[in-house]
Amino acid sequence: MSQPRMVNSRYLMAETASKTAWEDEDESMVARDRSGLYLNFSNQEARARPQFIPALGLHSFWWKGQYFKLNRKKESVFDDGASSGGFGAFKDKEDLTISCLGRSPEPIKQLLAHTKEQYYSAHQARTIVKRPLPGYMRRARNNWQIVANRPVREMKTVVLEHQQKLQVLADMNEYLHPETPRWYANRGIPLRRGYLFHGPPGTGKTSLSFALAGVFGLDIHVISLLEPTLTEEDLSSLFSTLPRRCVVLLEDIDTAGLRRPVDELRAAERASKKEKENTSKEESGKTTSSDIKELAKVLKKETEDKKGISLSGLLNAIDGVASHEGRVLIMTTNVPESLDEALIRPGRVDLQVEFTYATKEQAKELFIRMYEGDQGRPQRLDDAKPVPNGTAVTSSEKVPGSANGSVLSPETSSALRSGELDIAIDELPEIAHRFSEKIPDGEFSPAEIQGYLLKRKKHPRRAFEEADKWVAALIRQKMNRTKVSQVQ
Ligand SMILES: Nc1ncnc2c1ncn2[C@@H]1O[C@H](COP(=O)(O)OP(=O)(O)OP(=O)(O)O)[C@@H](O)[C@H]1O
């Protein structure tokens, strides 16, 4: 649609432009209620300006001095659902035919290369998030669906020990290097890399995974083992249909209740045997071996009926023959101790990263990040400068007011100058420091601190002043193990 001839074509189709949550919107298109105080989104789509695209049929345009014809054809085809094992249904199939004058297909090849380039430059600063298709739609060839296309999460927004970040970045950078596959192949090592991110909830495990996908420009494939319709066969086929390079995020592997059918059964058998023995001693040998067999049968049935992914099913998927090589697997857990050793043995997990409750230093960084101006540009490759281990770190990695940098970023300065915040320009590092002094070391998660600050989004001074009360209330809440917070 960037072709002037196409935009001015006399045959256009108007589409309601539905936007994703991340797309910029024109404020003037949003109505207000009668008081003028609150935004009102009723009939938002009807009010939005339509988007014009070439109508079905024949169009023509010029590109780089060459005349092209574009034919848009749409037809309904019947998909009998045989490949998906589902029900048949009519589906729209669209064909775009591009032709040009002359005998050589070269101009068309160039045009396609150009469109591809345009598409990628528009999507460069975004991360595509994919999840498994719903159970009934899974197909042999593609089981993944795009669920989000969001702006890249910049690495600097994940507050972690600098060294920790660098370690993962360097490891992943080396693994993704084009020469790595040959190196692995020459040594007969399967081309896989696995990380275990462990730590309490809300400490940044998922955030770091997204930021890593952003740094390396990879799509992220998220699987929750808690998904009720996910079978072991699905899991294997999901792993076998991954793209060449990608991040796979297996969340909360501990809560999945990975069952271990054989072990469980044996343990149950042992327990029941013992119980029987005790009873039989008491009842002077009335129990027969057929009783035990009967019980084992019932237990076996129960185990088989249990839904979910077994440990061997998961191991099969992540390193079985069908498992795609080249991917980076990130597993996250709140309770690493509960994991089976087999799951985290070297080769399956190559690097463990521990996430902890926030230190004072991290609380300070979170404070500064919260009140930074939001004119931040998406991270670009030319913003990155190499560090000795070969990994790129953005210049904004240095945190204002922290040990490794003391200057405010231009965005922060401009936000402060524009009077959006309730403090003066040079006060932020000092207030951030004084705020962090009030936060007990290693007791609150970054998510908790972020939540508190978010409620005082434009008021760093208030956030600092009310921190004592909030800290005391949160400590009380944690001690009493109550979910109800007194100060928010
Ligand atoms: N280290 C951190 N730096 C910056 N933001 C963080 C950090 N930890 C948590 N947050 C914020 O807290 C929220 C939850 O974080 P995230 O989902 O990454 O935590 P998690 O460790 O994966 O939690 P869970 O174990 O519950 O999945 C996010 O909004 C994130 O921005």
TrEMBL record:
Residues 268-291, 377-413 are annotated as: Disordered. This is AAA+ ATPase domain-containing protein. It is found in: Mitochondrion inner membrane. The keyword rRNA processing does not apply. It is a single-pass membrane protein. The keyword Cell inner membrane does not apply. Keywords: ATP-binding, Hydrolase, Membrane, Mitochondrion, Mitochondrion inner membrane, Nucleotide-binding, Transmembrane, Transmembrane helix. Pfam families: AAA, AAA_lid_BCS1, BCS1_N. It comes from Xylaria bambusicola. GO terms for molecular function: ATP binding; ATP hydrolysis activity. Its main location: mitochondrion. Residues 191-359 form the AAA+ ATPase domain. GO terms for cellular component: mitochondrial inner membrane. InterPro entries: AAA+_ATPase, AAA_lid_BCS1, ATPase_AAA_core, ATPase_AAA_CS, BCS1_N, Mitochondrial_chaperone_BCS1, P-loop_NTPase.
